[in-house]
Amino acid sequence: MTVETVSLNRSHGGMQGVYRHASRETGTDMTFSVFVPPHQGGAKLPVVWYLSGLTCTHANVTEKGEYRKACAELGLIFVAPDTSPRGEGVPADTNGSWDFGLGAGFYVDATQPPFSRNYRMWSYVTKELPELVSSAFPADLKRQSIMGHSMGGHGALTIALSNPSGYRAASAFSPIVAPSQVPWGIKALGGYLGSNKEAWRKHDTVALIEDGARFPDFLVDTGDADPFLKEQLRPELLERACAKANIPLKLRSQSGYDHSYYFVSTFMEDHLRWHAARLDRSGR
Amino acid sequence: MTVETVSLNRSHGGMQGVYRHASRETGTDMTFSVFVPPHQGGAKLPVVWYLSGLTCTHANVTEKGEYRKACAELGLIFVAPDTSPRGEGVPADTNGSWDFGLGAGFYVDATQPPFSRNYRMWSYVTKELPELVSSAFPADLKRQSIMGHSMGGHGALTIALSNPSGYRAASAFSPIVAPSQVPWGIKALGGYLGSNKEAWRKHDTVALIEDGARFPDFLVDTGDADPFLKEQLRPELLERACAKANIPLKLRSQSGYDHSYYFVSTFMEDHLRWHAARLDRSGR
Fold first, then answer.
1. What is the pLDDT of residues A83-136, one digit of tens each?
2. Is A259 noted as a catalytic residue in this protein?
């Protein structure tokens, strides 16, 4: 596995890198960012995965997420993948819209042509990229956790529920929690997975919980001035599902906050401390 | 004075705004950003001015500066102006270069045509914008301080030295300290102020100090991996001038850091605490 360094900058005592590699899963070049905090030589560090939202690349959180200071203090590696395959030959939405196709991979392995060849973000984020990160960085894959924003919150929660022993913590900012029931999700899951809604349930946080998936606990922040809150995010559906399944959910509605990185960056440190507390526990 | 709100986002308990207004000094629309921290109704808050570097707008530090958490804690208003006039009819460098003209106002009032009509960033930053900020925000103009990055560090230090009773603190990240002696500065000061180098001395930190200007103390950070350090920034010239003039200078060379916002954001909190300590003193 060859990784090309796009940029490398010292920041908050650690190193913020941006990297590119040829992905076997997506069949394209993929770009991602990794922050490695200051650490002792030979140390292996826990890894926090951050999945981004619609239209984003690694760059949004890398530039605006304000995670480096806390990661440096807490000793966390922070990895931010892209949100879809990109490049020549990658099919996009025929209408050029921003909520499907490029920048909108929804963290699934597509089964429908023409998307099934490249849109394999589930396998990319859960298998290929962890392997690459553990080979190229001082990462301890026995201590991983996952968080995300909006579509990436959907990705983080569904990935954690599907592999609860693989991740020690999961949290989200403004997640899409029930894609099968909201316009963004119906369009994306229909386009990538086809019209059989049974296939969607493995990629829907609320449906996964209804079908028996479990995770120790979740932290979720939403903003009450988020324009997508009522139609696309619907945190009350997650609240109901977690209550019914006895999954402890720390769900906070933040007054005056919207869907932007001004919101994410404000609560990033809280989330990283939540993750660090769970990553520090040896074993489970 | 009419101010148009471009965007307004809650962040770190305060409000991050971006605003536009028709400037009498530059004869153009000007965009700037203001962070107002959480505060009691009726309170008047100290103001930190942040001047940006070559090619930047208000957006670079607003998105990447990581200043909001500390400003919220310390109760500081943070204002980031643009770096030049922009728009139709504003003369730019005939060669389209990035180190003169648009994005490169150098915080002077140009005397040379065709730049003298619009390039009035000195008066804009020291007179027009403070008036506007005090009329539209809960700002206490008796408690102002100033900082900047690169070309903006040049702006911050020269403005503080020219009006030491107007600013209670001054600091810089990677400043241009002797523009009369380095390529960026020689091009800019020559273009805006003409070939008589006597006129440049009021816009050169080292020359101002040599000519008798004083300020209580300075904090300056540079990165030892900054590619511009030796040719354009030359912090040793500031060190020598301050030593000779008995101006206390806290000059720190930060190991491994470059010229980017990854560097600025790392030390932003330190600078804001330096400013807050000096802004909190009642009187002088």
1. 999 998 899 877 778 999 999 999 999 999 999 999 999 999 999 999 999 999
2. yes
Dihedral sign, Cα of residue A153, residue A156, residue A161, residue A164: negative
Q: Are B205 and B180 in contact (CB under 8 A)?
A: no
Q: Is A63 at the interface with chain B, CB within 8 A?
A: yes
**pLDDT tens for residues B239-276?**
999 999 999 999 999 999 999 999 999 999 999 999 99
The full set of domain ranges for chain B reads 4-280
Topology, domain A4-280: Rossmann fold (3.40.50)
Nearest to B262 among A16, A66, A256 (CB): A16
B65 — contact with chain A (CB < 8 Å)? no
Q: Which residues from A are below 8 Å from B269, CB to CB?
A: 69
DSSP-based three-state secondary structure for A20: strand
- Asked if A231 and A185 touch (Cβ cutoff 8 Å), the reply is no
Query: Is position B226 annotated as part of the catalytic site?
Result: yes
Residues sharing a CB contact under 8 Å with residue A191, sequence separation 6 or more, in sequence order: A93, A100, A110, A112, A115
Q: Most B CBs within 10 Å: which of A6, A7, A8, A9, as the mutation test of the B interface?
A: A9
